Amino acid sequence: MKPIPTLARIEEIALAAIAALPAPFAAAARQVVLQVEDLPDARMLADLGMDDPMELTGLYDGVPMTEKSTAFPAPYADTVWLFRRPILAELETREGVTLEELVAHVTVHEFAHHFGWSDDDIASIDRWWE
Prior knowledge:
The chain is mainly alpha-helical. The protein has six helices and three strands. The chain is 46% helix and 11% strand. It has a three-stranded mixed beta sheet with strand order 1-3-2. The chain starts with 6 loop residues before the first helix and ends in a 5-residue tail after the last helix.
C-alpha cells in the first residue's frame, strides 16, 4: 500500500511547479501566498455556492493582476489554496496521471487566475479536463 501524500508533499510539488514558471510569471507568482489544506473551509464553499468540499481542488483568493490598482490596494495578500483530499480523490479518477502532474496542473491553473485569466481563457489552451 502506497503512503498517503502529506500536506508537506503537496506543497513541495506545488512549489516546484511555481519555480518552473517562465520568468515573467515567476516574478509575479512570488507575490502570492501558497496554502495547502486538507479541505476548503465553509466560508470558501459558501462564497462559491458549493456544498461538497471534495469538488474543489484549488482556489485563487485575491485580486487578479489585470484588476489591481495602486489607488485601491488589496486589503490582504493574494493566496492560492490547494486542497489535498479533493486532489487525491481526483487523482483516483485519472488513470495514468501522476500526483506530481495533477498538483502542478491545479497549481498552474490557480496561478493563471492571479495573472488575470478566466476559466474560459485557461480552457482555450488547456484541455486537461476533457
